[in-house]
Amino acid sequence: MSFIKEFKEFATKGNVMDLAVGIIIGSAFGKIVSSLVADIIMPPIGLIVGGIKFTDLKLGLKDAVVDGSGKVIKEAVTLNIGNFIQTAFDFLIIAGAIFLLVKAMNKFNRKEPKEPLTPPVPSKEVQLLTEIRDLLQKKSI
Questions:
Q1: Residue 126 included in any domain
Q2: In terms of DSSP bridges, do strands 77-79 and 65-66 run parallel, antiparallel, or are they unpaired?
């Protein structure tokens, strides 16, 4: 089978299409959560902790180099701690939402425990032979 035919067969299977749809929806969900965190959750938290905008939290490692006219020659080197905090909140919210979704899916997919199977009733011949065996054992004792 040629490589192209094999790839076409792989790409047209249902699981690949389901995966593609899941990735597209997941990326859109990630954008929604990022906006939720950046635009709705972080501003009140910043207000509570003293009016801080978290994306502005930076730890300077090296100052910017500026010439006499005020033009920046080299940008400052910073650790963007605020962006990291915001991304961590994004992750926690996405992880929590996925956890709740998987938990709900597992609840719906959980199968009811099956009743224990009762052993089949032996035929009349087997019952009769069992009785004869038991009587013979009693007689020999």
A1: no
A2: unpaired
Beta bridge partners of 77: 62
- In which element (H, E) is residue 61 found? strand 59-62
| Tokens coding 58 | 């930076």
Structural domain range at position 84 = 3-115
User: Structural domain tally of the chain?
Assistant: 1
Residue 66 pairs with which residues in a beta bridge?
72
pLDDT digits (tens, 9 = 90+) for 107-122: 887 777 677 778 888 8
28-68 pLDDT per residue, tens: 888 888 888 888 888 888 888 887 777 788 888 998 888 88
Residue 26 included in any domain:
yes
Does residue 132 fall inside a structural domain? Answer: no
Q: How far apart are CA 136 and CA 141, in angstroms?
A: 9
Q: Which two tokens stand for residue 11?
A: 């790409």
Q: How far apart are CA 90 and CA 31, in angstroms?
A: 9
The residue written with tokens 């006219």 in the block is 69
Q: What is the pLDDT of residue 128?
A: 92
Cα-only R_g, the chain: 34
